[in-house]
Structures are given as C-alpha cells and as structure tokens.
From TrEMBL:
It comes from the Bacteria. Keywords: Signal. Pfam families: PCuAC (PF04314). The keyword Coiled coil does not apply. This is Copper chaperone PCu(A)C. SUPFAM superfamilies: DR1885-like metal-binding protein (SSF110087). Residues 1-20 form the signal peptide.
C-alpha cells in the first residue's frame, strides 16, 4: 500500500499523515449487481488503533452512501441508517456478519464480478480528527439465492 503513491493516496497522506495509517480495512467485498439493481452492500473488517467512529462512506460510483444496521421491528427485519458506528481501539469490527453493512445508493453503473469497487470510509477519531480511508472492494459473483432477501428490503426503503 505505502509503496504505491497514486495521486489520490498522496492527497490523503498530506491531509492526514498519521491517521490514515491508524485504520486498517481488510476483506472488503460487494456482490455483482442484478439487472435493475442500483444499490450495493459492502462488507468489510475495519480496525482502528485509537477509539474512533465510522461516520460515512462515499464512492464516485454512487450518488450516496450510508451505514446500515438491521433491526427487528414488529417481527420484520428492517434496515436503518446509522449516523455513526463505534470503532473501539484495536478491536476488529466486521460489517456484514452482524447485519451491519455499508450501502451505496444510486449506483452509476452495474457492478461486475471480478472488477474492483473503489470507495472511501470517513473515520472520526475521539480526539476530533477525521481521516478518509480509500478502499477497493472485490466484486464477487451474484448469489441470487442469498441476495434476494436483501434486495427485497431495499425496495421497501
Ligand atoms: Cu442496507
């Protein structure tokens, strides 16, 4: 990562030299989109060296991004947008397993399996500083069986 200083990464290092390094993101992935689907759910593991919160997600590939959690409401699983998600120091937080995930809304083009989806996470440290972490998510082939339920929920947003 550090060896490749593309223009975008350089900008981050200049803006937040110490802090971009304090957050590690691994196993980021999304599913390829089905025809007509314009949202993408991203799963990943994020670890911050210091107490912080995940406060945003954005991508040039979509109009907006949200942090989502799944909650039971009257026996029905629903998604709710979170303003922030706590990232306790040195504790890996996995978005995906527990129903939390990142959602890109208004995709500008379909996600194709095998390509990469660039996006950025906005992390706010408890000392008030913020950092932007650029990540590439792997795009996995569409799994229609397990994705149908998720898409259904998003149509009800
Ligand atoms: Cu969602």
């Amino acid at each position: 990562m550090k060896k490749i200083l593309c223009a975008g990464l350089l900008a981050i290092l200049v803006a937040a030299p110490a802090y971009a390094d304090d957050v590690k993101v691994t196993k980021a992935w999304a599913r390829a989109t089905a025809p007509g689907q314009d949202t993408a759910s991203i799963q990943l593991t994020i670890t911050s060296k210091k107490d912080a919160s995940l406060v945003g997600v954005e991508s040039g590939s979509s109009q907006s991004g949200e942090i989502h959690s799944m909650v039971m409401e009257g026996g029905v699983m629903k998604m709710r947008a979170l303003d922030s998600l706590p990232l306790p120091a040195k504790t890996p937080v996995t978005l995906g397993e527990d129903g939390n995930h990142l959602m890109l809304i208004g995709l500008r083009k379909p996600l194709k399996a095998g390509r990469k989806l660039p996006f950025a996470l906005i992390v706010k440290f408890d000392d008030g500083r913020t950092a932007t972490i650029r990540v590439l998510a792997a795009i996995k082939p569409l799994d229609t069986a397990s994705d149908a339920g998720h898409m259904q929920m998003h149509m009800q947003h």
